[in-house]
Design a protein that fits this description.
- The protein has a single domain, classed as Rossmann fold (3-Layer(aba) Sandwich), CATH 3.40.50.510.
- It is built from six helices and four strands.
- It is 52% helix and 12% strand.
- The N terminus is likely disordered.
């Protein structure tokens, strides 16, 4: 088991390094102002347990001050996505610097896009084209540095390139 722990630490370090480089490389992206909190994250999954587990991991690695909200499953406890749950999670994650959404599968992406198309009164929200777990970790680390929404999205999307072997 120690090999897994070491590997997990190395992955977190890699995520931190990539997130920090994304923040540094995005000079044109404003950081969250002092009046705003960090960029919030919403994790959309067909499974409530999966969304909650990834949120727990992102909070641990990004710090408790980064708002990370799971939006998984259907209200009856079944598998699926709920536009209402996603909207509630976006509102809960918003601290004034915007909200980044990450989704697990294609139909979750479609549900998020539907919400964004219909969003009249939502805060600044964007959807990342990123893997859910690696992207959430990288985004949480970037958000913890005070990076703006564009830099947090870039960090999440760079997670596609993280190699495991």
């Amino acid at each position: 088991m120690p090999a897994n722990t070491t590997s997990g630490t190395a992955s977190a370090d890699t995520a931190s390094a990539h997130a920090a480089s994304a923040h540094t490389a995005s000079a044109d992206t404003a950081s969250a102002s002092a009046a705003d909190g960090p960029v919030g994250l919403v994790l959309v999954s067909h499974s409530a347990r999966l969304a909650e587990g990834v949120a727990e991991l992102a909070r641990q690695l990004g710090g408790e001050h980064v708002p990370v909200e799971p939006a998984g499953g259907l209200p009856d406890g079944g598998l699926g996505t709920s536009i209402e749950r996603i909207e509630q999670a976006v509102r809960a994650a918003d601290r004034g610097a915007g909200v980044l959404i990450l989704a697990d599968l294609g139909s979750a992406v479609l549900t998020v896009k539907l919400l964004l198309d219909e969003a009249g009164q939502l805060p600044a929200v964007t959807l990342a084209d990123a893997p859910l777990v690696e992207g959430a970790v990288a985004a949480a680390v970037a958000a913890s540095t005070g990076a703006g929404l564009d830099a947090v999205r870039a960090a999440a999307e760079e997670a596609r390139d993280f190699r495991k072997l």
